[in-house]
Amino acid sequence: MQTFEDVAALWQVLADWRREGLRMALVPTMGNLHEGHLRLVDAALQHADRVVATIFVNPLQFGPDEDLARYPRTLADDQRALAERGCDLLFAPAVETLYPEGQEGLTRVSVPQVSQGLCGDHRPGHFDGVATVVSLLFNLTRPDVACFGEKDFQQLAVIRKLVRDQHMPIDIIGVPIARDHDGLALSSRNGYLDRDARTRASQLYQCLADSAQRLERGQDSEAVLTQGRRQLEAAGFRPDYLALCDATTLQPVSTWQPGSVLLAAAWLGNTRLIDNLPCRS
Ligand code: PAF
């Protein structure tokens, strides 16, 4: 697997592939890769002839009090894992390469409505930062397909809307959450949890699963969500939200049915975890 930091070298290879008529899938990441990311590569390999991963810790999507400085950077391990999984090329640019004229006057992309509510309320500007870098990466690499994890459910909804609104000829593939043995959704931020917090962390998934069961039994959604928030607090979490929403618009709904999704975000100490459970049948 080749790694490029420069745009010119990347373009050369992409142009060759395009000339050969090869389909290319993009897997954008911020590095510190775990099994969840590697499943994005698996999905990409199923949909394309060549897979390009990107590693870029995007400063635009971090708030002033967030973890940009301490976000784990593990490039050598990531390169090894991507190569073993069959990724063809890694693009890992510096901030100055993607934003050569700085971040202040940079052209921004904003996806209203679906970026609001849920994480959008708790992380102002976050989804504008995501939409800006993702559209920039799409423009740079012009993929046929791009794969994103369903763990960042709102992010995936924002990207799907971005691609629809901009008529981008890119198939967006959502890849189901990879979970640890106790149900905890895999995340780079799980590395921040100490032993006690790690033991409690699986209660976030447990709360979603219990809430889904209560909804399936026909209990009132408001009562279920209130009980779920209490369940999180009892397990030591400070919930940002527990919500039942339409899976496309992310507007609140009151019925648990295919096309709806339970979403949660909650703090354990200084670590913010998110998870979700879509209603599949
Ligand atoms: O999900 C992530 O890792 C990031 O938000 C993404 C999509 C790579 C954009 O920086």
TrEMBL record:
UniProt key word Metal-binding: no
Catalysed reaction equations from the record: (R)-pantoate + beta-alanine + ATP = (R)-pantothenate + AMP + diphosphate + H(+)
Gene Ontology terms for molecular function: ATP binding; pantoate-beta-alanine ligase activity
Enzyme Commission number(s) from the entry: 6.3.2.1
Keywords attached to this entry: ATP-binding, Cytoplasm, Ligase, Nucleotide-binding, Pantothenate biosynthesis
Cellular component annotations (GO), alphabetically ordered: cytosol
Binding of (R)-pantoate, residues: 61, 155
Signal peptide: none
InterPro entries, per database record: Cyt_trans-like, Pantoate_ligase, Pantoate_ligase_C, Rossmann-like_a/b/a_fold
Quaternary structure (record): Homodimer.
Similarity comment: family membership: Belongs to the pantothenate synthetase family.
Role summary: Catalyzes the condensation of pantoate with beta-alanine in an ATP-dependent reaction via a pantoyl-adenylate intermediate.
UniProt protein name: Pantothenate synthetase
Organism for this UniProt entry: Kushneria avicenniae
Lineage of producing organism: Bacteria, Pseudomonadati, Pseudomonadota, Gammaproteobacteria, Oceanospirillales
